[in-house]
């Protein structure tokens, strides 16, 4: 972008005074109001999507005031990203600039942007996707969707991630590119990059991450006879919003900008296998676990706006901090009520795999929402459920984002007895299809009463070992354990403070209420 001479001279002045611009902290500058004479910056497809869902256009669709942006420029401040949803711009500020901007009458506030984003990267470096995703296809009953002809066709999917290196040459994704299934790409880290650069230029090993996520949504490798994702016929819009090493990376403002770009194009379903937690260069600016409340972080507020006002279904990885005793809980924006947060299970018992983040007990709603198998991180369980959602949206395009979310939850194997370890459990395609047909689900859940310190429950299962969740209340887990089935019975031993226990038989769930 070409700067005006006056802004450029101001820029040089501040560089001399405060060092390199890139060393300055990045902030959100939030404005008080908008220019009501401007029109919403939306495509016809986006406006049609809103009308179809009976969602009206509002002030969050108007652009940020050009007058306010010009005012910042006169202060030597160049905006990086603009958010019409948050009515804000992001910018790097020196201490002197911060003090001046904070006093401007149009500024409602300034907030630090957390540069730390936690992801999981698992791929090899030759563009070939490893086959470890295959077991989840059996777990979620992928063949039932295939038999119903549901492959995500006519559904647009946005993927916001760290990089898509080798996506156009990966065996599992060749079918997507052969039919021109990736319509547009955008690099918010380096806007000078072309579409070819995004797929062919490797800056860090994290640039494989988005490729692996895309394969978990739509991957299918006929040479290995291996299906990796459910939405093999969906249409994709890709955005790279982060750069860095394997674990810590970010740019929260890029994420919001990518969300708004996809909304303007009419995208209804977005996968983001990224989450903000901690890792700030200045530890005083880290998020605290208590701030994972669905409304403290601006990224969660933006996600909630997308869910409530834009009709977008956002599917987010819950986080990989389950083994981190200093954190343990989900990251943001998985904490937003309106998003579908996905945890990870192990492959045998379908209970929480150790690294998968749990839901904070302080939340008045359930997180994670659902879970499925992933050996290497919730970054790859979330895209599996994104493919699941695409199949539902193909079957009934008139469903709202919240209706799709409800079907996914109700199709899960523990429903209605969810918990903050795995949510409602693993979504089942057969149950989702039944719900799409408005047919009654088979009864797979029952509740029984128990008393004393131990209780024997007769069960009908072919499993020799089942998962048991000991809970302090209806949703919050004290501990999970693997329990043997002996002569068709499960013996429960009540823990201190335990009021309810969930016995997970996969095909049936039994909720024990202690008296």
UniProtKB/TrEMBL annotation:
Residue numbers annotated as active site: 161, 209, 379
InterPro entries cross-referenced by the UniProt entry: Pept_S8_subtilisin_bacteroid-2 (IPR017317), Peptidase_S8/S53_dom (IPR000209), Peptidase_S8/S53_dom_sf (IPR036852), Peptidase_S8_Ser-AS (IPR023828), Peptidase_S8_subtilisin-like (IPR050131), Peptidase_S8_subtilisin-rel (IPR015500)
Domain of life: Bacteria
PROSITE patterns listed in its UniProt record: SUBTILASE (PS51892), SUBTILASE_SER (PS00138)
Keywords for the protein's UniProt record, in alphabetical order: Hydrolase, Protease, Serine protease
Domain Peptidase S8/S53: from-to ranges: 154-425
Keyword Hydrolase: yes
Matching SUPFAM superfamilies: Subtilisin-like (SSF52743)
Alphabetized GO MF terms: serine-type endopeptidase activity
GO biological process: proteolysis
Recorded family membership: Belongs to the peptidase S8 family.
Protein name: S8 family serine peptidase
Species the sequence originates in: Spirosoma terrae
